[in-house]
Amino acid sequence: MIPKNDMKAWGWDKHWDDLWQSAVDSPTSAEPGRVISESRGAFEVVHPSGLSRATPIGRLRKKGQLWPAVGDWVRIELHSGGAQMTQVLPRRTCLQRKAAGETEDIQILAANIDRVFVVTSLNSDLNVRRLERFFVAARDSGAAVSLILTKADLVTADDIQRLLSEFRSRFSEELDVHQTSTQNGLGIEALLRLCQTGNPTSVFLGTSGVGKSSLVNALLGQNIQLTATIRNDDDKGRHTTTGRNALQIPGGGIIIDTPGIRELQLTDVTETVDEAFQDIEALVLQCKFTNCTHEKEKGCAIQAALASGALSADRLLSYQKLKAEAEARAKRTKRR
Ligand SMILES: Nc1nc2c(ncn2[C@@H]2O[C@H](COP(=O)(O)OP(=O)(O)OP(=O)(O)O)[C@@H](O)[C@H]2O)c(=O)[nH]1
Ligand SMILES: [Mg+2]
Ligand SMILES: [Zn+2]
Fold first, then answer.
1. 101 belongs to a structural domain
2. Angle formed by the axes of helices 313-335 and 301-308, to 10°?
3. Is residue 265 part of a domain?
4. Which of 41, 55, 85, 236 has the lowest tally of Cβ within 10 angstroms?
């Protein structure tokens, strides 16, 4: 049988081939597939012989099993009554957050991604705390991380320079940053190359209205994803994209569009918080006392950095908040 769908173009490689042989129950009686859309609990899976709506079997809800998410590779059984996902292959990377509300549930935003693009628009008020959270979750996924600043056509070159240096000094001098405009095409070619080279899977992460779906359409060269009607402010609470979708970019690469998220609560990411705030971690090591609370102790390197302006009070506050949150969460998880 000649496969109808080229699974390599969907990201299948030797890693998955090996896992399919070693980690899947009776691989010959099923097909491997990739979950490419999820909307209100309904899944679509692309597999060698077609594209099917597929339901996960109940067993996948059990502890130690994985519930499918967009980007997952699954074992799919095709029956006359419909397709079933019977197993989710172990994830290579995973972008996740704590589900909204009081629960301890974790929501998988995208699985098996190679790069997370944190997307924010240049014309909106910069919410640095929120971005910091997005970065921590993005780094924690195990994928590479880039920042996209959209709607460059709405601001002046001076504004962009000012914001760029602010982003760099806040997040990292090495941060991979792209400015884009889907209005005049700025930055789209460079983004396209990054999303195509090596056939990676990328995901856009950002709040509603920043222009994620517009970028997806620009990368695909077609208006496939619905976007908000033209208006220039990032309207709060208006969610145009409702499901998560993986789409193939002509020429290689897969891009996952996601609904805008407002709240991103962190999962178990203590180490990632440290990584994202290496400057502060390095300072802490220089404090005179190892149990320094960084409030009024003598020889406190944090206080010294605040006084000299090398560290902003804002950044310290973000760090303390995120760290406390991650630690509290780690404790809760251990207790279970
Ligand atoms: N001026 C300008 N407007 C843009 C640009 N990119 C997107 N927009 C506009 O911003 C609005 C929101 O764009 P979308 O692509 O729907 O935003 P989104 O991030 O997908 O939003 P959700 O699906 O709700 O999460 C639309 O009106 C777009 O036309 C840009 O580069 N320049
Ligand atoms: Mg959208
Ligand atoms: Zn100190």
1. no
2. 150
3. no
4. 41
